[in-house]
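This section describes the prediction task in plain terms. A model, or a person checking by hand, is given the sequence of a single protein chain and must write out its three-dimensional structure as a string of tokens. No templates, partner chains or ligands are provided. The sample shown here is typical of the held-out split.
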Amino acid sequence: MNENKRIINDYEIIQSFYVGEKEVVVGENKDAEYRYICGYYESNEIFERINDCRASNDYLDIMSLFCDRAKEQVELCKQTQKTEIGIITPDMYSPVDIYDDLTGKVVVKKIDNLRREYQNAENQLFYVTGGNGAKPNSRGTKVFGYSFASKKHCYIRRYDVEGVVDKASLPEWAKTDLAEIKKQIKREEKEVR
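The expected answer:
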């Protein structure tokens, strides 16, 4: 058996497209009642599956659905991004080193570690609230905080941090986003009490 093949529910994945939040896949099983399937692939440490699946024996029908779903993901990704914000360049931040405490700072994620559709300033910026990775000389790598793109609490790894941005030199849209994030943090703290 070829170890490079992806097999899910007895279907070999023969096409896939991953942009934005979902991966669209086409699978083939020559022995199944329906030879082809198209759906959204998802996985975690415990399971993998294909959601919202359609099956057919008509390859062109399935490929048409695959193309429609891939285009839909591209359009959803376009809708969530701010237009013309560019990227954060090295002249806009100070490099980070192991002695920096990142807590309460806006950091820049390494652009090369972001998927292509997320290589923009909004996805590069991250407001740090804590974590072992935020502390200087720490063994831990998790840096907790809020993504400017999603405004959701999540974490990144310290080795994904390129530098620290001076809050005063943030673009206006980023200052507005940071204010929103700080308001959200206060709301969440009140809910916990």
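For orientation: Residues 7-80 form one domain.
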